[in-house]
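Deliverable D5.2: sample structural annotation.
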Amino acid sequence: MCYTKSMMEQISKHAVVLLSGGIDSATALAIARSQGYHCHTLTFDYGQRHRIELEAAQHIAQYLGVEEHRVIRLDLRAFGHSALTDDIEVPKGGTVGIPVTYVPARNTIFLAYALAWAEVLEVGDIFIGVNAVDYSGYPDCRPEYILAFERMANLATKASVEDKISIHIHTPLIHLTKAEIIQEGTVLGLDYSLTHSCYDPDEKGRACGQCDSCLLRKKGFAEASIADPTPYQ
């Protein structure tokens, strides 16, 4: 049988997936894999205080059998102004408005790197596990932001201008609750004990249980009626 180019693309499609090591990015990766994508995962060592998530990302990438896992090192501590990259206390017990754990322009920076790698790989599909339902209120997790970045990506890259690829930012979790995300990942066989969510873990890597991310994680597992495998302090 003679395969056309479009048939070959259906047989072997590739995607770049942003993988932090948390619930959302791990589930987005599992979904991409379930849709038949060969995944190239990208993780960032950006000076975050919860560096244990880097180990989690590596374990998840191995567990889900990605094509390649890359860790990009950049130091957002140079700008600070976030409880994750500066000498600012991580808030506990819930916050109102955009919390101090927001890292300035983080998703824009991460997506820019993903876009560069996608262009080099001649891949048009990028997955990111942003969520606009059960989330901390970060502005770079909203649907309008993703649409704006996608428009920019198709204007800014040589490959898209020359009609070699069309960039599509996939956000399979954006309208799901945390419980729905966990249920979806569980159906896909994802082992959530490999993931890490806490912004302020102790020296043993145990989650604090009180930061925004921990509270959202606990809420998600409780509402999904699934046992939370997280070791808390």
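Annotation notes: The first strand starts at residue 13 and ends at 18. The mean pLDDT is 94.
The annotation will be released with the project's public dataset once the embargo ends.
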